[in-house]
Amino acid sequence: MGDLFDLLRYTVEQGGSDLHLAAGMEPRVRRHGLLEAIPGWPTLDHATLSRLLPTVVSEKQWQEYVEHGDLDLALGLPGVARFRVNFLRQERGAAAVFRVIPERIMSLEELGFPPAISNLADLRAGLVLVTGPTGSGKSTTLAAVIHRINIMSSRHIVTIEDPVEFVHQNRRSVFSQRELGTNTESFASALRSAIRQDADVILVGEMRDLETVSLALKAAEMGALVFGTLHTSSAAKTIDRLIDVFPSDEQEQARLSLSESLVAIIAQHLLPRLDGSGRIAALEILLKTSALPSIVREGNLPMIQNLIQGGRNLGMIAMDDSLFDLVDRKLVSPHDAYLKAQDKSRFEPLLGES
Length: 354
Prior knowledge:
The strands form two sheets. Strands 9-8-10-11-7-12-13 form a seven-stranded mixed sheet, sandwiched between helices. It has a six-stranded antiparallel sheet with strand order 3-2-1-6-5-4, with helices on one face. By secondary structure, the protein is of the alpha/beta class. A hairpin with a 2-residue loop joins strand 5 and strand 6 (93-101). The protein has 13 helices and 13 strands.
């Protein structure tokens, strides 16, 4: 049996996205969305994990895990990759998940994204939200957009993350990358500071609470370009979730602020490629038009889909249309598209073709 570094190298070499370790289970790697056991490794027990896990953290971090049962951190393995790491305790004992963060940031072109997303890098102010479930590629998308800004513009970019994932080198832009718990106490406190730090672009790793959302809107209103993420599956649900963060007596003002600041929502899902070569993103893209502010102010969210359908010439697309296009191009299976679709009846006739 090897060590933890062997497992991490294997994960990267096999094209895995995550390494899962848990007492009572053999090590497993997630490849193309599926969990696979690593050959040659036995079932791990709590004692073995208690020997392996401390080898990649400081004594202080290990003590925090022992005391609290949870630990989040970023781990760099030179020449291999960076990893977003979570230690946890579960029923049978210790466990950990290592998410692979590639050392090289892929460009938007390499990701196959349309010009509508590349154009986000040209924005100078406003709020851009990238949404989707955990593991849907939100961080990769944002890293690619931020990288494009870095090579195209001279700006001060502040990222606030938990933990820092993609590490950006200063090119034309200057970076201040801040990690929760290490460089700042919270998203809110770092956001408050960023407003005073002459930040042109602010990346908020996750818009979790009322204070963070309020400050992100304020920063966008003051002229910064703010990128944030939420775990929502569509543009309409994203707007709804943001407004619901506010108390009922503040929601009208929140709608007004959001209507003035919101410039784009990108919702995404990752699906297995039909040829087994990896995964591909299905995208819903909502862009600001003259009609969007009034829709947000009035809370008329059913109109969002109509707005997207009417804005196809601008690069907008609905999630179901994106999924249907991937099936039509034989890039994903009808069954996988059906599972992610909002209007499943549209995809049912295709299931017999899979």
